[in-house]
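Posting for a labmate who doesn't have an account.
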Amino acid sequence: MSNYRAIGSSLRERRQQLGLRRVKLAQRLGLSTETIERIEMGETAHLSAGCLAMAMELGVDAEWLLVDAKETKN
């Protein structure tokens, strides 16, 4: 699993833990649901700014993303 996929997977799991649907998160961030889906799938073209915005909205920081992604990859 690539780091991008692992980060996306971590974000998806966190969103689900919080009981948020993609539509609601997309509305909060001003993004499309397709963009949220692409971030969660780890597509690099949509990862950077959207990923950080999602992390902040989900109450986690960049360090959490990187550490959790590294643990998921191993």
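Reply:
Got it, the structure tokens are right above this. The helical segments are 3-17, 22-29, 33-41, 48-57, 62-73.
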